[in-house]
Amino acid sequence: VETINGSAYNISEPMNAQSSRLRGLTLSAVYRNLDVGGQHFDIDMSASRLYGHMSFESSHGLRVMDRLIYQPDWLATADLSWRIPSIGGRLTFEATYRSNMINYLGTTPWTDQGYGSLTRTNLYFRHRVARHWTLKYEFSNLMNSQPRYLSGPNLRYVNEIDNYGRAVYFHVIYN
Q: pTM of the predicted model, to two decimals?
């Protein structure tokens, strides 16, 4: 506590963690040129499990966390692509998942803030229209997933939900 212009203030100073550790495991599987009834598909999947640990001193004493800041426990992605050689094209479905994560560590669990888990799904279609030109159509957030901003112990309270909706993009690509 420090007195400034006659008023008492609780002064704190950000500092690095006293100790931290991050370990994890990632498994990936890729299969290219899977032939199903004369059609060709590519499959790409991966999943990561992260284990973090951190301790830091705050004005409320030593705080020990089972994760690092911006570290989700789980990350996963999967892509399935159908290759269409006759038009120089490809149709791809993509899904990604991220478990919740803290982006602000408070001095107590009640002041922690972070992002809720999020699953996004997208669909892409591209095809060649000329020797050096490709058109790409992108359909983003098919399941209309909304990001949530959380707070409190174990990020259990919802502070905000954003509604970004779905989106469609059109790209003209010069190869």
A: 0.82
